[in-house]
């Protein structure tokens, strides 16, 4: 029903390549949808013990996600958590090598501040949809909460000395943050 929410093939291959370059052992993904991006990340893992923890709030998607994970051998690296990421992440132990933020756009700054202290130095955070169909450059005409959330996140991380930031103008914008 929401095809625009699915990562496309190009973005999936970029996620796989970035994962290979970063070589993470522990990956956190906020926002699973149907599991495509989690699988792309898992396909890029070189370490047989590496893990992807993905969280989605929509419990009605659980069966679809589990089906997709079972169809791909890389799915064995993925652990699905259903519920609110703001409640689940604090319960997960350890630090993260890589994280992907692709959940509720209103909460991007909250997600970022929640995971940043748990990122290893030199780790990477990827944030999806940061161009938000171009709406983030015209806030006078786009005052909805989702657009404001993405725009505020973009401004926030651009000023944050704890990370180095670049927005790739691919699809709907993919921000790459390197934790300093």
What do you see in this structure?
Helices cover 32% and strands 24% of the residues. The protein is of the alpha/beta class. A 7-stranded mixed β-sheet has the order 3-2-1-4-5-7-6, with helices on both faces. Strand 6 and strand 7 form a beta hairpin. Helix 1 runs parallel beside helix 2.
Helix content: 25-40%
Which class of secondary structure composition applies to the elements? alpha/beta
Q: List the uncertain runs.
A: 1-5
Strand content: 15-25%
SSE order and pairing:
Blueprint lengths: L8 H14 L3 E5 L5 H8 L7 E6 L5 H10 L6 E5 L2 H4 L7 E6 L6 H8 L3 E10 L16 H14 L4 E6 L5 E6 L1
Parallel strand pairs: 1-2, 1-4, 2-3, 4-5
Antiparallel strand pairs: 5-7, 6-7
Helix pairs in contact: 1-2
């Amino acid at each position: 029903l929401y095809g625009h929410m699915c990562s496309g093939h190009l973005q999936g291959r970029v996620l796989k390549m970035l994962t290979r370059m970063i070589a993470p052992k522990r990956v956190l993904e906020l926002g699973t949808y149907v599991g495509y991006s989690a699988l792309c990340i898992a396909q890029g893992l070189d370490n047989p013990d590496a893990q992807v923890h993905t969280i989605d709030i929509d419990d009605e998607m659980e069966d679809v996600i589990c089906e997709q994970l079972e169809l791909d051998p890389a799915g064995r690296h993925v652990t699905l958590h259903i519920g609110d990421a703001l409640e689940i992440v604090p319960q997960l132990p350890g630090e993260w090598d890589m994280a992907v933020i692709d959940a509720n756009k209103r909460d991007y700054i909250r997600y970022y501040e929640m995971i940043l202290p748990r990122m290893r130095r030199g780790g990477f955070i990827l944030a999806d949809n940061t161009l938000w169909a171009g709406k983030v450059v015209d806030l006078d005409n786009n005052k909805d909460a989702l657009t404001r959330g993405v725009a505020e996140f973009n401004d926030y991380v651009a000023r944050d000395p704890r990370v180095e930031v670049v927005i790739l103008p691919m699809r709907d914008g993919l921000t790459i943050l390197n934790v300093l």
